[in-house]
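tool_call: predict_structure(chain=1)
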Amino acid sequence: MRKTIFFLLMIILSTSAYSIGLSSGRSYPKPILFEPGLVFSEDLVMSQYKYESEPYIEGDLVEYAIITNHKDYGDYQTFTVILTLPEKLDRAGIHTLYIGARELPPTEGGIVGLTRVRKLRQFLVLYDEKIAKFYELLTPNVNEGQTTKFSFKAESLSKQKITSIEVDIKIYDFNRKLIKTLNIEKFELASAEKKTLSVEFDSQGLTSGQYFAEAEIHWENEITKLESSFKIGALNLQILNFTRNFTANQINKINIEVESKWNGKINDVYAQLFIDDEEQTSTQTYNFGPFERKEITGYLDLSYVEGGMHTLRIILNYGNEKTVVEDDINIVGEGKKKPRVRKPITITLNSTEIMMLLVIIVLILAIVVILQQRKKK
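tool_result:
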């Protein structure tokens, strides 16, 4: 049983190194608007296959599509898909055609891993009744006191015009308390029209943290709601956690988990580390992206620090700002005794004392000179 599982695992791993590819030189709208008798044509290239491969098509429009002009060049194959839409389809809404490429089982048999890939092409048949779609409420992060644009997309799926669409975007704080409402002017959607609507959001007066936005869209006696979240940033780095247990008489690694509260880059961040008010070391510098969380690393030399509970202070420096955290740490074991260093004797004299000392030295020199002269006589 173990051998079988191992064998299957090896097959999966071996096939993960490659996968058949399918590419097209064009991009298409999603969806493509249905037109009676529309001819849709797409040229594609298959590549990166290990076994014999073939193109294929599927989906509810497959009966109207063909694969043609298929050519095999060994390392890659080319083909064309032509879809000829009928005068009418049986229902309104989205219809699909999948264009794919797949590997075929080798003729010699055996267990092999085969890959396949496919592309989706969508075609929209408009509804007779008024139908619309609202989606992608985008609420970018912003910093305190700054402004940004909130937006969403609107799309008509109807043959008729959709009139008098009203939108309110309500802003809630972390506790789901309503703090602000944004209004978008009334707008219309023509048949099959797509629009991106936006409104300015000003964070003035709001503190940093997590917020929520809810767009309430009123249209043709219907209500559609979209939700999103965003952050308001402040120039602050928060120390979330750090190593608290260490071993005496050796160099210890310390990991400090830090999270940025700023919607922007903060460069050249470093931490100073103190044990019992004595500075140990500083970490290397780090760069933080918007709201990024990462671990920074430092090293503490505890060779001469005794075991027991001590106070660790971390000062995180970034620009002109600092974040300071202080907490107890536990050091296990016994540290070395610090060697005694003899302090040099220092004498401090003021200007008067220096003058007196100079006078004494001059007098002594004068006496010595007089005594030497007397000896010569």
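agent: Residues 270 and 284 are 6 Å apart (CA to CA). Proceeding to next step.
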